[in-house]
């Protein structure tokens, strides 16, 4: 898999990685997501299993697209949630505050 759009329903079976900043995370995130801000990802990549599918999310999809491309280059099975948290909330999926 590469930098693709992932169907929102896929998060039921994938690890969710949220690469937003702490204040964005605190405002609302996907339950069970792992929070690693984009700038911290290179130093914390060992917290992710490269064999586990990872759905990467940010606010609207730009930062998560960059994180996804980088993760794929590192050998991870990662996809970008196109539209990010905006799309998640528009689909009326639950968030944790």
Automatic annotation (TrEMBL):
CDD domains, sorted: RHOD
Rhodanese domain sequence ranges: 10-97
Gene3D superfamilies from the UniProt entry: Rhodanese-like domain
Pfam families, per database record: Rhodanese
Protein name: Rhodanese-like domain-containing protein
Species of the source: Aeromicrobium terrae
């Amino acid at each position: 898999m590469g930098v693709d759009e992932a169907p929102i329903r896929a998060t039921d079976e994938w690890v969710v990685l949220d690469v937003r900043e702490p204040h964005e995370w605190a405002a609302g995130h996907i339950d069970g997501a792992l929070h690693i801000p984009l700038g911290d990802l290179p130093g914390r990549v060992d917290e992710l299993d490269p064999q586990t599918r990872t759905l990467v999310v940010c606010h609207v999809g730009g930062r998560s697209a960059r994180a996804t491309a980088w993760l794929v280059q590192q050998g991870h099975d990662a996809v970008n949630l196109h539209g990010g948290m905006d799309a998640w909330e528009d689909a009326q999926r639950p968030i944790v505050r």
